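Run log, item B.
One chain of 587 residues. Sequence copied directly from the ordering sheet:
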Amino acid sequence: MSNYPGRIITKNPVTISTTQASGIWTLNQALQAIRSGVWPGIGSTVSQSFTSSGYWTAPAGVTQVDYLVVAGGGSGGGYNVGGGGGAGGFITGTALAVVPGTTYAVTVGGGGASVPGSPSAGIDGNNGSVSAFSSILSAGGGGGGHGVPTQQNGKAGGSGGGGGGGDAGAAGTGGAGNTPSASSAGGYGAPAVAYQGFNGGNGFISSAAGGGGGGAGAVGTNATTALGGNGGTGQASTITGPSVTYAGGGGGGGNTSPGVGGTGGGGTGGAGNPASQATSGTANTGGGGGGAGGFTTGLSSGTGGSGIVIIRYVAPVISSVSFTSTQSYTIPAGVTSVDYLVVAGGGGGGGTGGGGGGAGGFRAGTGFAVTSGNTSTITVGGGGTASTGSNNAGTNGGNSTFYTITSNGGGFGGSFNGDTSASYRANPGGSGGGGAAGQTVSYPGAAGNTPAVSPSQGNNGGAGFGTGPAAFGGGGGGGASVSGVDGTNTGGGGIGGIGFSSTLTGQSVMYAGGGGGGATAANTNVNGGIGGGGGGGAGGNGVGGQGTGTAGTANTGGGGGGSGFVSPTTFGAGAGGSGVVILKLNY
């Protein structure tokens, strides 16, 4: 029998969750449980990993986050016996203040590009790119220096690149790490330190070899006779739950034997005899790339591994999470189902009396079963590009997905000159694009709810009107609630179809309105559909003409507005608005 937390004497350990915690708990014990996200009525821990740049909106009730920001690793140095690339900077900490409802940019740095194994003069490796979240910025890893005959030092960075191998009494030295200077507050197994990475190792002179790139946890190893230096080890973190090591340095290239990449995604160096190709740093670890091998042209250095940004926070019970860009998401502990809204990107508007872009598909539901701890990629579709005039078409919006739920991008609006080219006509999608005006023919709007799902994800676009050289207008793009309105015989474009509202964020918001069709009549700007649809441009021979269509509103899935017919000037249409995915967590 043991006395477990909660002052309960029992044979088996006491378990706590978001729904129960029996016994009498000290304040310190309760605070530890709250921080772990398993205290009743408080909420659960959410971990979000960003493997590409995007945005994150702080949910209601979330005032602080824990974070890990790893930059892209540097690439290894080129021919010959190049130094290993330095790892991206590693910065982690806890309790970073955020403001509920505020949207924060998330930047995930790419790895430095590989350099070729020729020319024989050699090329230094490239630095990785920075990663950032809020005020936290990690520097890209330094590129490795190239080797003989013009051996170079490794470049400075989050962790420094390894120096190139040399001869004639000289070799490259390792680049400086922690450049620019930054501190890591520590947490989740990582210590609090006054740096974000270490220096690269030095190259070797005789029987040349490149030094290892620095890592987040150790310096790169100096090269020895014909043997490339090993990359510096990275740093482990448990911010996602299991222990994962990030930011290992790349191994240096060797004359006969390469240096091994540092633990944490570092790539292995190449060799000259026998010849072997350097390997790249592992994606989303910030590992440095391996340096090119010795005296074998044509073998490139390894690319640096891309970075990663991870945030962790306690989400209040019955909270919603909004995704405005593509990212991975882990279902929090205690969540058994979600209510969802999945809106795709809106289609781009058509040109010159063009049809409005169709709204992105709108799909909503309740009680969708999920499993706590499962991680999946949530995709948020971008808005379609706009037509730039009468002789080209825009593009459909991008699809948005959550688990098995896919909403399809809105169809692009038709563009003038459909009389001679079918490729400019409106396109189907989540909601269909509006038809373009024609001089002799009225072109139909495109179909919505394509591909078909039930309930319907959208509606058809309105038809363009065309009876003569002056009196025509583009049709409005379809909306989630109703179809787009047809263009008129008085030169007016059709109004975009109205979208649907959702209250998943706690307030009623309209999404997925269709774009307005372009007009030929002067001073006749056309409204987009309620729900983020962009307005259509006016016409009128340049007099009173506001010919440019307006873009759909970002993260509503609104269609872009068609541009007006304003002779002789050509105006562009509006791009579609990007989509959004919103989840309400049910415990």
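Observations after the first pass:
- Helices lie at 27-35.
- The mean pLDDT is 87.
Flagged for discussion on Thursday.
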